[in-house]
Design goal:
With 304 residues, this protein is α/β, with parallel strands linked by helices. The chain folds into 2 domains: 72 residues, 60s Ribosomal Protein L30, Chain: A (2-Layer Sandwich); 169 residues, Alpha/beta knot. 30% of the residues lie in helices and 15% in strands. Helix 5 runs parallel beside helix 6 and helix 5 packs parallel to helix 9. The protein starts with 58 loop residues before the first strand and ends with a helix.
Length: 304
């Protein structure tokens, strides 16, 4: 694939071990926050979108996700449903205390009634209805990623067409835990914050800024112009992630869908295509596992 045909902006010139005024065409691209909640049932949780906001996230299920929702205080919580027998006494006391501190009176239901309300298979005896998650602008995400560079360079995860809510939740959780500064999702062609994704994120959606963009290729061009390097993760690439000299710069890690990977145009807009070092016989990692591995490899290298 052809690389970019324009030079990197001046703020990218002082990169350790890289020549000055690098040309991205020479970088390897060769490899491969509301209204009352209204329930909307769906035969499957995949690709469920909220009708009145970009991201979703209104229905929060699972103990950890609901505890962080109450703890963070970022979003208004409208209702809290509990199954008393699903909690140990100390657990129940703690979550009721958190709700009381927010001025929320829990509604106690039977297990069957909560199951009828839930949209995941294991809500763990708790469902909360909250205002939706508010996306941030891409500009704000970039500003956050670059303002403290080079002392604390940003780390953004860009998802191109991810469809599995469990993977999205795991990616949000890993990104937040690894100190990521944000995530980018496409407006279409990808899952957003369904109840399953929010539950899998285990509260991380309350803390990780997420931007929604019309298209990933254009987003990558804007990241480039704003001083954020983009690395597409692709199995089999001759470039190896751990050997890249740009890991201490503001970065965007780009990952694709579970089946098709990163689209051709998005890959062409990335500054470099690289693989995660592997020694086993299986050729690729699950996308959420690959992201976690890459994030922590970058964190380790930066700390060194």
């Amino acid at each position: 694939m052809k690389g970019r045909h324009h030079s990197l902006p001046d703020h990218k010139l002082a990169i350790p071990t890289k020549p000055t005024n690098p040309n991205p065409a020479a970088v390897n691209h060769s490899s491969s926050r509301s209204t009352s909640w209204r329930r909307q049932r769906s035969p499957t949780d995949k690709n469920v979108r909220s009708s009145n906001n970009l991201l979703g996230g209104e229905q929060v299920e699972g103990k950890r996700a609901v505890i962080e929702l109450l703890n963070s205080r970022w979003r208004r919580v409208d209702r809290l449903y509990l199954v008393e027998k699903s909690f140990r006494p100390a657990e129940l006391q703690a979550i009721v205390a958190l709700a009381d501190d927010r001025g929320i009176k829990p509604i106690f239901l039977s297990s069957s009634d909560l199951a009828a309300l839930a949209r995941t298979t294991a809500p763990q005896g708790v469902v909360a209805m909250a205002e939706p998650v508010t996306p941030v602008s891409l500009g704000d995400l970039c500003a956050s990623a670059t303002k403290d560079a080079p002392s604390q360079p940003g780390l953004i995860v860009v998802l191109d067409g991810l469809t599995d809510p469990g993977n999205l939740g795991s990616l949000i959780r890993s990104t937040e835990c690894a100190g990521g500064t944000g995530m980018v999702l496409p407006r279409r062609r990808g899952v957003h914050l369904t109840p399953a994704a929010v539950k899998a994120a285990a509260g991380a959606v309350e803390y990780l800024p997420i931007s929604v963009v019309p298209g990933i290729p254009a987003c990558l061009s804007e990241l480039h112009e704003r001083g954020v390097w983009s690395i597409c993760l692709a199995p089999g690439s001759k470039e190896v992630l751990t050997e890249l000299p740009i890991l201490t710069e503001p970065l965007a890690i780009v990952l694709g869908s579970e089946g098709n990977g990163v689209s051709r145009l998005a890959m062409e807009r990335c500054d470099v295509v690289a693989s995660i070092p592997q020694s086993g016989k299986i050729s690729s990692l699950n996308v959420a596992v690959a992201a976690a591995a890459a994030l922590y490899l970058i964190r380790y290298i930066r700390a060194s």
